[in-house]
Structures are given as structure tokens and as C-alpha cells.
Write a structure and sequence with these properties.
With 473 residues, the protein is mainly α. It has helices at residues 2-11, 26-29, 31-49, 63-90, 93-115, 123-158, 163-169, 171-208, 247-260, 297-347, 352-399, 402-405, 408-427, 440-457, 463-468, and strands spanning 232-235, 241-244. It has 15 helices and two strands.
Length: 473
């Protein structure tokens, strides 16, 4: 499905033809990115200045139909020309940079999976793949219906010249939605990489529950709940007396004193072994010196930073294009509700062209809202997965596993990672050039704004206008 979208994007001139090739042939790569916008401008100027093939110039199109069609056409021109200029700004640089960084990230992830012995774990990716393809299939069905309705109605009105009004009616919204589809794809790739490193972090977290810190010398000075027992004196190798509270502990102290020639004063011990992290049945617990999953921590911290950097350049490429798309979605949705409630409910079926324009608003408002919701949902998922990494690392630190207590480097790196993520969280979030954040709060703000506008629009009395147009008796 992604490949089909990329081919269609190249065909209508939204992305370069050979976007993944380092060698650039400007004639081949950017031909469609100039031909299609020029053809769009030709159709737009032909309709507005020559007054031919325009829906608003037909005799059967009344004043409400003309106003609605002009708004839809000019808003589409604003949307298409804006995203086209932004697409030409960076050209192939973004795609080459994204693929290069993504390949480097994937190589490190594969190495970490081999270290953690997780090469055969594919349950998460399979679940993601099912929802991923279902989303794209749903979008494909929605766009197919929208295009079918528009092309069928225009062909019935203009015949073989239906492609001219189509270029200025539905094509800009189609192009804007495809650009957002590219954004959806790249954000989903980023979210998937966050999920993969979270799986590796979780593997370390699970292993830390079953590992204990290395114990060579007992130094128990806990101020917790203590139960004092009869102290049994034990003679050490060098003649000094060492006190222990258990025979087992005393025997272990004898053995360690003979091996290491050290003196230790052991006074009290907690008897609650279920809450103790140390195994007192063995005085010394050998640390796991083989390759284990915690060896991935330095690489995972670097991977997290690289994926966040990849999110920044992705937002820099597609974030500005979200602004005109969300604006067009907002306007089309408001007027679609207005036309459906104040016009179509009253005079439905009395004017074919008015019904066509009204349904066109409703269809594309629903389509753009679905695309906008998927963009917001995936951006929220990517942000949540990035936060989850820091939460897992903090949970590992609270458990104080053996590798952290035996090596200050791990502790310092984990602490630096959690602090650095706090700065990242305040510095970056998927957004539309800083005007709004691409998360679920955007839905609340747009709904509240749309409600205010609809309260004003729905107070207009359309009966006099509809009577003048002969639509009401």
C-alpha cells in the first residue's frame, strides 16, 4: 500500500521521481513536480478568467451553489500551491537523509537484538503490521469513494472535459491528503523504532528482577527494622574477634577472612530475606561477566537520541504542510455542516448542482478529518513511545540491579538519559511550525473553535435566499 502511495505521489508531482538515488537528474526527477502544478494553474486560470468549464458559470447553478463552489475552489488553490512550494523547498534532501539515518538505526537495533537474544521475537511487529495495513486500507476506501463521486458527477455535467473542473475541485484536497499520508508513513516508521528499543529496554528490566548484586564483603548497617539475637564470638585468622548473628554468616566470614586477609565488623542483620536483595546462602555471588542484555544500554541511549533527531527532521519537512491542510479541513468541515443543516435539509433534491456541491463538502470534510485524526494519533503514539523509554529506564534504576551497583558508569548513563529526555520533552513535540501541537489537544481546540463559528453561522436565516432562487415556495 505504501509503495502504491509513493508511485501515485511521484505521478502527480508531490515527491521527486528517484528520491532515494544520490545522483540527481533534474529533468527526470523533477519533471512531474513542475508539469503538474503548471497544468493545475492552467486549469485554474482557464476557469476563472476564460469562464469556461466552471461549475459556477452554469445557468442551473444558483447563488448558494456559486458561493460554495468558489470557496471550495479557492481554498483548494491555497492548499495545493502551498504544499507544492514546500515540497520543492527541500526536494530530495529529506528523503536521502531520512533513509540514511534509518538504515544506521536499524543496523544498531539488529546488533542489540542479537546481544539480547531476541532475533526470533516478532509478536509486536505482527500486531503492528495488522493495524497498520488496516488503517491504510480504510484510507484507500475513503479516497476511492470521494474520487468516484466527484468524477462521476463532473463527467455527467461536462463530459470528456470533466478533468478540467476536477483539477480545481477535488485534486488539491487529494494532493494535500497524500502529503499527509507521507507524513503518516514516516511517523509510523519512527514510532515502530521506538517500540523496538522499548522492547530491548523491557528485556533489561525483566532480567534485573532476577539478578542480584555481587557480594564479597558483608557490611550491614541498615537502620531498618532489626531483631537482635545472641551474638556469637568467632575467632578470625589474625586473632581478632568478629561477631556474627548466625552460624552460617560466621562461617562465611571465616572463609572470606582466610582468602582476602581482611577484617570486618559485622553487628546486625535483617532476617527478612524476602525483602533483601542479597543471597546470604552464598557469601560471594559471581557477577555475570558474559554478554547480556544490559550491555546494550549505551547503544540504546544513542539510538533513542538518533530517533528523536529523526523525528525533528521529519517534523521540519511535513509540519509546515500540516498548517494549510488543517486550515482547509477546518473551513471545509464548518461549511459542510452549515450547508447540510441550513440548505440540504430544506431543499434537498430540488437542485442537482447544489446537492453535488453540498455532498462534496460533506465527503471531503469527512475524508480530511479522518486523515487529520490519523496524523494526530500517530504523532501521539510516537511521543508516548519515546516517553515510555525513559519510564522503563527509571524503573530499572529503582530496582538497583547488579550491573548498576557494580559499575558507576551504567548508573551515570541512565541518570543522564532520564535528565536529557526531560529537556527533549520540553524542546520538541510534533507540531505545525509552532502554531499548534499535533496531539489530541488539537482536536479539543478545533472543536471548541468550530462550535463558536457554527453558533454564528446557524443563526443565519436562509429561507429568504432560497425563496429568491426559486427553491422554496
Amino acid at each position: 500500500m505504501i509503495q502504491i502511495m509513493n508511485w501515485f505521489s511521484m505521478f502527480i508531482g508531490l515527491i521527486p521521481l528517484n528520491r532515494q538515488d544520490f545522483e540527481t537528474n533534474y529533468i527526470v526527477d523533477y519533471a512531474m513536480m513542475f508539469i503538474v502544478p503548471i497544468f493545475y494553474l492552467f486549469c485554474y486560470l482557464l476557469i476563472n478568467f476564460q469562464r469556461v468549464f466552471g461549475l459556477c458559470f452554469l445557468d442551473s447553478c444558483n447563488s448558494v451553489c456559486k458561493l460554495s463552489n468558489n470557496l471550495f475552489m479557492h481554498l483548494g488553490a491555497f492548499l495545493y500551491l502551498t504544499i507544492t512550494l514546500m515540497s520543492l523547498y527541500r526536494r530530495k534532501d529529506f528523503f536521502l537523509q531520512f533513509d540514511e539515518r534509518l538504515n544506521a538505526i536499524d543496523e544498531v537495533i539488529q546488533k542489540c537484538r542479537r546481544v539480547a537474544e531476541m532475533d526470533k521475537v516478532k509478536v509486536t511487529s505482527v500486531k503492528h503490521s495488522v493495524s497498520y495495513h488496516f488503517t491504510w486500507l480504510f484510507l484507500f476506501c475513503v479516497f476511492t469513494f470521494a474520487l468516484y463521486y466527484d468524477i462521476r458527477s463532473l463527467y455527467f455535467t461536462f463530459g470528456t472535459y470533466a478533468f478540467i473542473p476536477f483539477m480545481v475541485s477535488s485534486f488539491p484536497y487529494l494532493a494535500g491528503s497524500i502529503i499527509q499520508g507521507e507524513f503518516i508513513y514516516h511517523v509510523s516508521v519512527i514510532s515502530e523504532r521506538f517500540e523496538q528499543i522499548n522492547t530491548l529496554f523491557e528485556k533489561i528490566n525483566q532480567e534485573s528482577r532476577h539478578r542480584h548484586a555481587p557480594l564479597t564483603v558483608f557490611d550491614i548497617e541498615s537502620e531498618g527494622k532489626k531483631e537482635r539475637k545472641t551474638i556469637t564470638p568467632v575467632m578470625a585468622v589474625d586473632g581478632k574477634v568478629i561477631f556474627g548473628n548466625e552460624k552460617k554468616l560466621a562461617s562465611e566470614l571465616k572463609r572470606q577472612a582466610g582468602q582476602q586477609k581482611t577484617d570486618e565488623d559485622v553487628t546486625d542483620s535483617s532476617q527478612d530475606e524476602e525483602e533483601d536483595d542479597f543471597d546470604y546462602d552464598n557469601g560471594t555471588i559471581a557477577e555475570n561477566t558474559g554478554t547480556s542484555s544490559e550491555a546494550n544500554l549505551p547503544d540504546l541511549f544513542k539510538l533513542h537520541d538518533k530517533i528523536l533527531s529523526l523525528s525533528v527532521i521529519t517534523n521540519g519537512e511535513f509540519g509546515p504542510q500540516c498548517v494549510p491542510y488543517m486550515a482547509a479541513c477546518f473551513v471545509v468541515s464548518i461549511f459542510g455542516i452549515f450547508l447540510e443543516t441550513k440548505v440540504n435539509f430544506i431543499v434537498s433534491g430540488k437542485s442537482r448542482l447544489l446537492d453535488y456541491v453540498t455532498y462534496l463538502y460533506v465527503i471531503w470534510s469527512f475524508t480530511t478529518m479522518v486523515v487529520a485524526y490519523i496524523v494526530l494519533r500517530l504523532c501521539c503514539n510516537a511521543n508516548n513511545h519515546s516517553k515510555q523509554s525513559a519510564m522503563i529506564v527509571h524503573e530499572i534504576m529503582q530496582k538497583k540491579p547488579a550491573f548498576m551497583l557494580s559499575n558507576d558508569l551504567f548508573y551515570n548513563k541512565m541518570k543522564s538519559f532520564t535528565l536529557q529526555f526531560l529537556h527533549w520533552e520540553g524542546f520538541f513535540q510534533f507540531n505545525g511550525i509552532g502554531l499548534f501541537a499535533l496531539d489530541y489537544t488539537f482536536i479539543f481546540s478545533t472543536v471548541s473553535a468550530a462550535t463558536s463559528y457554527l453558533i454564528v453561522l446557524l443563526q443565519f436565516d436562509m429561507t429568504a435566499i432560497l425563496r429568491n432562487e426559486g427553491l422554496m415556495s
